[in-house]
Amino acid sequence: MSNKLSKLEIKAIQDLLFYFPRTWNDLSQVMPILQLRIGNSYNIKAKIIQISSQRSLRKKMSIISANVEDVATPEVAYSTGGYSRQITNQNDFTQATSGVARLKIVWFNQPFLIQNFKVGQTWIFSGKVEWDFQNQCKVMTSPTYESEAKIFPIYPETQGVTSKYLRRLIKNVLDQDIALEDYLPHEIKSGENLIDLNSAIRQIHQPNNQKEISEAKKRLAFDELFLIVLRMMIIKRELSVQNAPKMNVDKNSLVKLTKSLPYQLTNAQRKAAWEIIQNLSKSTPMNRLLEGDVGSGKTIVAAMATLNVIKNDYQVVWMAPTEILALQHFDNINRLLEEFDIDIALLTANNKARISDIKNQKSKIKNNDKQYAISDTLSADLIIGTHALIQEGIEFNNLGLVIIDEQHRFGVKQRAKLAASRTYADTKNHADLRGHTQRQSASSQRSSALVPHFLSMTATPIPRTLALSLYGDLDISVLDEIPKGRQKVITRLVDPVNRDKTYQFIRDQVRNGRQAFVICPLIEENDKRLAISNKLFDLERKSVKKEYEKLSNEIFPDLKIAIMHGRMKAKEKEKIMSDFKNSKINILVSTSVIEVGIDVPNATIMMIENADRFGLAQLHQFRGRVGRGKHQSYCLLFSSSLSSEENRRLKSMVECNDGFKLAEKDLEIRGPGQFAGSLQHGLPDLKMASLTDIILFTKVRRAAEKIVNHGIENYFILSQKIKEFDSLNHLE
């Protein structure tokens, strides 16, 4: 059983106590049987007066049938007007006039229940009331049941671990009266009218009424946000007293770069670049998040910062989440900075490195496959790479700026490791390695305590409250303008009956020289994610392998179609993307591996299968892979869901092209998990708090500011609790 509990991240007593219910089944309030209305769900307290088991011959299923008698209101006067309005048939009339209220209950395919129930026992039943046309009476079908009329917590479950089992485990712990140390200072609890931690834990698991649930949720939600916000404020204060290399503004280089561009910078780009350059000119470490919608031009802003740092004789490390994106950055930055005397290196998995000396190898940039030693790569001016940048033994010679691209795709610990991998200029004589002896004297004068500047980037717009909570230690620059000339992508939610028309539309686009993406949620049909899902329509989820075969053999046998997914080797993916960018492939069938950063201007169609399986923010990222050229582009959404609510969610994609508005809606619908769940390793899950709750967030920030201003060292228990967050020292 411990293995099954570990799947729920329950490995210790404290994990169990902080494994909160997802909802509560309130059986403390019961309804008299005569007041039950058809089509609604109720709780009743009733005694079993007859029970039987039989098997349906036609459908070959077991049927447990019970007649129960109301014991909730034995003293009710049935002549009252309230009850008389519920009498709708002869059966109700007979029960009302005789003073006995009865109901039929039926369970299907649960033969073991005949052993659970005995005539004369009283139970609480909870379920939906329907009409039995054959017997002309009300019936409650497959209700849940409990022996007590109280509130029962319902927990997130996994195979073999039910809510009943978790309730029993937690009860055993709470019965031992284990006292948790309450780390929240008394003045905050008093000022915000919060109950103590032990009361909150008991009330969340064993509430006596709805008020106790509300009080517990209020305290625990406050704690979740408070610890995050307080930690961020402490980090920001710690950074404010550290030293970073102070960069002079190389105006001539920046002007030269902007004049070389085939387009004009937007006002948002100019503002963001200026904010970053100003940060770099200070002796305190920059800690900034550059947030921009798809196609808003983050790369050129980061390139301007990169150039300025290199011109100050410092190195820049640029980290991307995938090899495809790292290679694309390598090519793009080479083109952007080709007029400048700098070395750019690429470092990806398997210790493979590539260096482009722009001054001497301009003509060889794209075809330069020569491999270099890691030490040679690390001496370049700009090192672009993936997780390989944080592998064991990597040390940088003279690091001045770290750029994290698509930062939400890296775990907190991964980002912290890159920040901690810096080395200090006066302890590393790297000048001769790089051949730039004129830099040696400047390097030797720098302090060994210098911390590199940090710039994080994301193309996933983050709602304001979420950004301030999760990245409260960062300053934020926002690119909220789309460069001129970028066309709006036409988005459609396509009815399945129009699938053939969609295929014809794709064929017409390819005939006109365009290309298309087809996105599927799975790699293959036996994907393990299917095995752990119990959703009825999961069998309809599309896989790239099956869809590739279908499109290649049945729909477009005359077209060039390729497949790409995360299990393929980096070289394979690199070759496929190269062929796709060079128009050697008409249609690319892929998983979400192409979600960010892929730039193929000739691609005009993004067709997404099972679009209901993706969040709005992710769908918006997919849509951002098209519309990057001069041709009108389209995003076609296919849904396997029959839910009108789900399809209304997808219709917001049709109606809105603003990533920031979609992110707010996505947060409202799905919660902060996509931003702060498994991708943020070590960041506490938000189980009670809602990051859309501005009032709560305001209270939390106010309380955290008081603690920081007074000094965290004056709150011993709280400071000990905060130390548990030390691994999150760089959450950017």
- What is the averaged pLDDT score? 79
CATH superfamily of the largest domain: P-loop containing nucleotide triphosphate hydrolases
Low-confidence stretches: 74-87, 357-371, 421-447, 527-539, 673-684, 727-732
Summing up helix and strand content along with how strands pair, one would put the structural category as alpha/beta
User: Could you say what the CATH topology of the largest domain is called?
Assistant: Rossmann fold
What is the CATH class designation of the largest domain? Alpha Beta
Number of strands: 22
Summarize the structure.
With 732 residues, the protein is of the alpha/beta class. The protein folds into 3 domains: 29-149, Nucleic acid-binding proteins (OB fold (Dihydrolipoamide Acetyltransferase, E2P), Beta Barrel); 251-479, P-loop containing nucleotide triphosphate hydrolases (Rossmann fold, 3-Layer(aba) Sandwich), CATH 3.40.50.300; 490-656, Rossmann fold, CATH 3.40.50.300. It is built from 28 helices and 22 strands.
Question: What does this protein structure show overall?
Answer:
The chain starts with a helix and ends in a 9-residue tail after the last helix. The chain folds into 3 domains: 29-149, Beta Barrel (OB fold (Dihydrolipoamide Acetyltransferase, E2P)), CATH 2.40.50.140; 251-479, P-loop containing nucleotide triphosphate hydrolases (Rossmann fold); 490-656, Rossmann fold. Helix content is 37%, strand content 17%. The relative contact order is 0.10. Mean pLDDT is 79; it is low at 74-87, 357-371, 421-447, 527-539, 673-684 and 727-732. A hairpin with a 4-residue loop joins strand 5 and strand 6 (137-141). It has 28 helices and 22 strands. The protein has 732 residues and is of the alpha/beta class.
